[in-house]
Amino acid sequence: MAAHAWHYLAVFDTHTEQPLYLGRSKRLASPDQRIVATARYGGCSFPACARPALDCEYHHTTAWAEGGATDVTNLAPVCGHHHTLADHGWAVRHDEYGRIEWLPPAWLDPHRTPRTNTYHRPADWYRHPRRTHQRQGWPPSQWAAG
Ligand SMILES: [Zn+2]
């Protein structure tokens, strides 16, 4: 009896011919995907975290357990400390610009306002200043001294 096979489409970068879209064939990010994510995000995607990408793990923004693919567009660099938050009420997703957003749990922010990390990508402040400012939102306003 034949073993179960995963069928997937591998898309290769046109310059290096390295696979960046692995689908469900592999769970862990490949070295080539890590290089691309490092170039794109620079470091941990959690708001205000300064850990560099070389110290990061790679989180599936659509969870592997929910059918998420190991595609470069579904991976977010996250340091080990912040990666544990994804299992404790925080949600991670890509916004319409491809940036990674973290949504806090409702007990921390009832509006679950998305937050991005501009520490490694300061140009985002100039590209989308109002939106970035609104989404940076850290610390939450309810924490401010009043
Ligand atoms: Zn971090």
Topology (SSEs and partners):
Blueprint: E1 11-12, E2 19-21, H1 31-41, E3 56-60, E4 75-79, H2 80-83, E5 91-94, E6 100-103, H3 123-127, H4 129-136
Antiparallel strand pairs: 1-2, 3-4, 5-6
The chain binds zinc ion (ZN).
Residues 44, 46, 49, 51, 79, 81-82 line the site of zinc ion.
Domain HNH nuclease: 32-84
Pfam families: DUF222, HNH
Protein name: HNH endonuclease
Defining key terms:
binds zinc ion, 146 residues, endonuclease activity, 6 strands, two-stranded antiparallel sheet, endonuclease, single chain, DUF222, nuclease, alpha+beta
In short:
It contains four helices and six strands.
Q: In words, what does this structure look like?
A:
By secondary structure, the protein is an alpha+beta fold. Helix content is 19%, strand content 16%. The strands form three sheets. The protein has a two-stranded antiparallel ribbon. A two-stranded antiparallel ribbon has the order 3-4. The model has no long low-confidence stretch (mean pLDDT 81). It binds zinc ion (ZN). Zinc ion binds at residues 44, 46, 49, 51, 79, 81-82.
In angstroms, what separates the terminal alpha carbons? Answer: 68 Å
Largest sheet: 2 strands, antiparallel
Number of strands: 6
Helix share bin? 10-25%
Work out the strand percent.
Answer: 15-25%
Secondary-structure content class: alpha+beta
